[in-house]
Design a protein that fits this description.
24 helices; alpha+beta; 5-stranded antiparallel beta sheet
């Protein structure tokens, strides 16, 4: 990135912060803290206006800084371990309202990517976009065979602007890591890097198309979730064409009520979809906000989720997934010691953490929640309390869990909006219990056995012959133990250490005996103690000699 442009962008950021009354953020860094008094001398602070709460001011500043900072603020709103509650709540209100770019530019991108005029590709193409966001916008179209589709087109030069603003975010993150007292624990550079990966993935619409295809395969026989068809012949890195789906936007409560949708079933199906994606498939839609979900209410008692926008997908390592499931189960059973131990075992908190103190803190924060009816318990609130507790015990931020936390909070908020009595825990617990049994029970053993059978089929026929050869060599006295040079050296080193310790013990014993004799025979002739001392030294020398034999 051009250093001059980076400097100018930083100047612009500081101007925006000052305009929104956030100059204290600039002067709060360790680097500038000694001159904080300058804030009170600044002319614009002589008559300070009421800019609103700090959360509101930060939200408005991010909106002024543009789409990339807006999306970053949206991501941070899910990180309750990073932000005070008032700021996190305000960042939830960030809206990615980006003016559309001209339809003629969209057509130019399509024709350049697919190598044909727009008239040869589509029977009809609407230049007015259906929706516009920071990365791309969507147009309605019709294929030559009459199929109704939507065409997603990347914004012109979006990759250049993203890389430019990411460079600024990395600069800020490095400064925070260096000068902020919480920088090491909260790992700002890693958080920005995780955000970078997400954005880079969104810039490749071929990847999004592949994500949609994988998710559709995972739910091929499901009545819960429908994923639109991808038309690969019309899809490139900057253009994606997929089936246009109909449905009621999940945020349109009046339309859902008019259709007679069973809200309890709808909310419970949303929970089941989430846990199926995370624990069954380890591949989950990480942008499940209301704008991306439409409901097929053709059967109001069995509503189906139709989802779009597959640019942000998440997955967990087998270890993280296992620890996460065990954490949920431990919470269900109020086994706080187990929760504390899992956090240490997973590396989420340092190994030197005192389990007793950690367990007591978790119990103190969580017991008041459990005193409420289960339907009033919030996963999101529980996660927040846990983050606040773990923060006191130096919990290290886990960037790989960012998307999962965001998705869980979205799903829970959406579920409670649809059905106030949603009991997320009761819905999730049977699923987690079955998954745990599948991972560690007899089914897991059988599954692993089936997985290993092909390789066993190759080696099992050879085992009887190998056993026979070993036994025959042993019977004939030909069985030899072969050690590598490293093994021999290690054994010799251990023997030398043992011999040295034995010699030191013998020497100590000989000198003690000699000293006792010397002091116990003071009345004997002078040559007698000297002779006993010589005998003690001789005993020690003999031990050294035997140690080298």
């Amino acid at each position: 990135m051009n250093p001059l442009r980076q400097f100018l962008r930083l100047v612009l950021i500081n101007r925006v912060l000052v305009r929104h009354g956030l100059d204290e953020i600039i002067l709060a860094t360790h680097l500038l803290r000694p001159i904080r008094y300058a804030m009170y001398l600044a002319p614009w602070n002589w008559i300070r206006r009421n800019h609103g709460s700090r959360g509101q001011r930060i939200r408005e500043a991010l909106e002024d800084l543009g789409p990339i900072f807006i999306k970053f603020g949206q991501m941070l709103s899910t990180r309750r371990d990073l932000l005070p509650p008032d700021i996190a709540e305000e960042l939830v209100l960030l809206q990615d309202k980006v003016p559309p770019f001209p339809g003629a530019q969209a057509i130019e991108t399509i024709e350049k990517s697919l190598g044909k005029p727009i008239g040869e590709l589509f029977a009809d193409f609407s230049e007015t976009p259906l929706a516009s966001a920071s990365i791309a916008q969507v147009h309605a179209a019709t294929l030559k065979d009459g199929t109704s589709v939507v065409v997603k087109v990347l914004r012109p030069d979006v990759d250049r602007w993203i890389k430019h603003d990411l460079g600024i975010l990395f600069t800020i993150a490095r400064l925070a890591k260096r000068y902020w007292s919480e920088g090491k624990r909260l790992r700002p550079v890693e958080v920005v890097d995780e955000y970078r990966k997400t954005l880079m993935d969104e810039l490749d619409l071929m990847r999004e198309a592949a994500n949609a295809t994988q998710l559709k395969r995972n739910f091929a026989d499901s009545e819960l979730l429908y994923v639109p068809e991808i038309y690969w012949d019309y899809t490139r890195k900057a253009v994606l064409v997929m089936e246009r789906i109909d449905g009621i936007p999940i945020g349109d409560m009046d339309a859902l009520k008019a259709a007679g949708v069973n809200f309890r079933v709808l909310s419970e199906r949303g929970v089941e979809i989430f846990f199926s994606q995370v624990f069954r498939d380890n591949f989950f839609h990480a942008d499940m906000h209301p704008g991306n979900i439409f409901i097929d209410a053709s059967d109001p008692q069995k509503p189906v989720y139709n989802v779009v926008d597959f640019g942000i997908m998440g997955s967990l390592s087998p270890t993280d997934k296992r620890y996460l499931a065990e954490n949920f189960m431990a919470f269900f059973e109020r086994d706080y010691l187990r929760v504390a131990q899992l956090h240490v075992d997973s590396g989420w908190v340092p190994k030197h953490t005192r389990l007793g103190e950690f367990e007591a803190s978790i119990r103190t924060d969580c017991e008041p929640i459990f005193e409420k009816p289960l339907k009033e318990i919030s996963f999101g609130h529980l996660l927040l309390r846990l983050f606040q507790t773990a923060r006191r015990f130096e919990m290290v931020v886990q960037p790989q869990l960012v998307l999962l936390q965001k998705t869980l909070l979205n799903i829970e908020g959406l579920g409670r909006q649809l059905y106030d009595d949603l009991d997320l825990w009761v819905t999730a617990k049977p699923f987690l219990e079955n998954w745990m049994k599948d991972q560690v029970g007899a089914r897991a053993f059988i599954r692993q056995l089936k997985k290993e059978l092909p390789s066993w089929g190759e080696t099992l026929p050879q085992i009887p012959l190998l056993v026979h050869q070993v036994l025959q060599q042993a019977n004939e006295g030909k069985l030899q133990l072969r050690l590598h040079d490293d093994d021999i050296e290690q054994i010799q080193r251990k023997l030398d250490e043992a011999t040295s310790r034995r010699n030191q013990a013998l020497m100590g014993s000989g000198l003690v005996v000699t000293a006792a004799v010397v002091f116990g025979t003071a009345s004997l002739p002078i040559w007698w103690p000297a002779g006993m001392a010589a005998a003690g030294v001789g005993l020690y020398l003999k031990s050294l000699e035997s140690g080298h034999d």
